[in-house]
Amino acid sequence: MDRNPFEEHRAADRRSEYGAMMLAALATAQRPLSVDDLVSVVGPEGARLADVADWLATARQSGMLRDQGFEDLGEGLPQGPRRFSLAETALAVLEVDWRYHDRSSGAMLA
Predict the structure, then answer these.
(1) Is this structure's pTM higher than 0.90?
(2) 5-105: which CATH architecture?
(3) What φ, ψ does residue 99 adopt, rounded to 5°?
């Protein structure tokens, strides 16, 4: 079945060239990350704020990310930027992928 050019363009748009870098940053972070944190990771590679925002929207919609909201100053007062972390299902998929990569490359698992 042939796709029309619009469908091909949409399929290409769904895949961010910076997505793997942002996914890795979230997977290795010790805390939830903000949009600014992600821009600082992929900005030096040429990504724009719009690239990060598009990827975040797609990743949230697909269930890969958890919206952690804002930090709480107490008494329910939000502080700072909205923060995101990987959902448990995304972490599980990444763990399987890392284990597969480690086995296929001959690396020892801890």
Answers:
(1) no
(2) Orthogonal Bundle (1.10)
(3) -65, -40
